[in-house]
Structure formats: C-alpha cells, structure tokens
Model the fold of this input.
Amino acid sequence: MSAPPSSSSSSSASSSTTNIMLAIFEKKTAAVDLYRPVRSYIAFNYSEREAQNLEDDLRALRDLRSDLENPAKQPSPTARRDLLQSYFRALCVVETRFPISPDKDHVNAVTFTWHDAFKQKHKASQQNIHLEKAAVLFNLGAVYSQIGLTHDRSTVEGRRQAVQAFIGAAGAFAYLRDNAAAKASMGSSTTVDVSVECAGMLERLMLAQAQECVFENTIAKGSTPGVCAKISRQVGLYYEEALAALNVVPLNQHFDKGWISHVQLKAAFFYAEACYRYGLELHEKEEIAEEIARLKSGISTLSEAKKSTKGAPAQLLDAINKLEANINRNLDRAVKENDRVYLMRVPSP
Done:
C-alpha cells in the first residue's frame, strides 16, 4: 500500500483565488428625450386624447430613461438592476405599439448613443430601438456581474448568492446574443461589445464564474476528489470557451492583455486543478501510472500558461504557483512509488 499523496490543505490552491473574478462595467450613454417624440407620434397617428390617456406612462418612460443616464441615482447594484429590468420591459411595450426607427412612418426623431464598455472612445448612434434594447441588456448583465462580486464567498450563503448573480449575468448576455445583438449590429454605427460574438463570450465567462463558486462550495463541503475533479473540469471548459472567443476576430484586438491573461490563466488553473483532484482519486485506487500521466498533463498546462501572464493579478499567479507545487509534490511521490513498487508503464498525457 502506497502512502497518500500530499494535499497541503483541503482546498489546494483554490482558496487563494477568492475574489479574483471579473465584473463588467456598464456602457455609458448620452441623454435623449423620448417623451416628446413618442407623444407627438401618438397624437398624430392616434389622437390627442390617446396621448393624454398615456401621459402617465410616457412620463414614467421619460423618468426611467433619465435615471438610466445617471447611475448615481441608484447607489446599489440591486437598485440599478431593478431599474434596467423595468426600463427594458417598458421598451418592449413601446416597440410593439410605437416603433422607433428611421422610417418616416415611425418615431424617427430619436437617436440613441452608446459608448463601448471596453473601449469608451468608440460609440454607436442609431435611430432605432434595437441599439437601446441591446445596451440595456448588456448593462443588466454587467450589473449582475457586479452583484456577484459583492457577495462574501467565504460563506455557504454568499457562494449561493454569487452563483445566482453570475447565472443572472449569463442569462442577460445570452438573451442579448440571441435576441438583440444581430439587430443592434446592423448598419455602419455599431460597437463590438454588443456583437453576437462578445455577448456569447461574456455568457461563457459568467457561467465559468458561477461554476467556480460551485467548485468553491464543493471543496468547502469536503466532497470526494472525483466529484471535485469533475466540477473543476467544467469550470475550466467554460473559461476555455471564453478564451477561444477572445482569441479570434472581432474580440482579439478589443480587450486589454490583462483581461485575456486572466481568462487564460483561469482556464489553465482549473484544468490543472482537475488533474490534481483526479490524481488524488487515482492514487486511492492505486492506478499510479494514470495518476502520473494526469499530473504531468496538469504541470504542462500550467507551465505553458505562465508564459503569458502580462497584466494578470499577483493573487492569481500565487494560486497557480501553489497548485503547481502541490502537483509536483504528488508527482514526485507517485514516480518514486512507481519505480519502487508498481513498475507500471506511464501512458502519454
């Protein structure tokens, strides 16, 4: 019987990554008056009486848009979330009855202007409601991501709430991708942040962070190495999908190197963490050759990822170094045991 592999703590290096997650900043917009153009459209196409009957609704729409333009009016992310949800519902009602577009028979005196969240010098201006809806959905996803970071993930309840927030963010970005991004990206005036590609990448990133919270909870509960390995691998897969989108057009020239390094290191970290956890399970089963192969694969992945660390936070790099040390320690032990006891042929990793 071989000695158990080294595990310096129940959470390996994962506890060091706490709070190293990404939140998205909201898009900024220019002021716009919806009240007068929409009211004039109603009075002209329906009647003045109809416009008067809808006066309260029109004022509410105006106030929602005004609050949207001034984030300071909602000091908390949850208040901001509620505002964005209310305004998006109002836009959906407006769209069905009072279409906003350059068409001469529509509300055509409104121009929406929104800045790119990641490159604020870039902006889009369009005379249609599609850009407005896309931007609101983007900001809803952004605010959910900010809410996710406010929760204390050192507690069970905090981790649960963070999972829900990141899933909410993923849902907003998925809805943007599937229902608004393509329409908002039509024409010459558009920004990358509300493109189908960017919305899809952000959905994957938020799913990765939600799953990472699940992993933290799994570790805290003392789950078996096999269960921890499976969940860690899923975290890594989500990060890998986000990274794949970041590495191709149109996103590969749009994000800071630190952002890309963060996602790349997270993908490598959770792949290696899965190898480490699975290695613990294999050791218990005395499947030493397979354990050696898995641990070598984890080390190789971490070594490659560490070549591209520009802009990455020191805390994340420290977590990677600790995990690498744990894997190396277990790998050295497994190799010695195999040489002395098992004499198994190690498969290629």
Summary: The longest strand covers residues 112-115. Residues 1-18 have pLDDT under 50 and may be disordered. The beta strands are 112-115, 123-126. The CA atoms of residues 283 and 291 lie 6 Å apart.
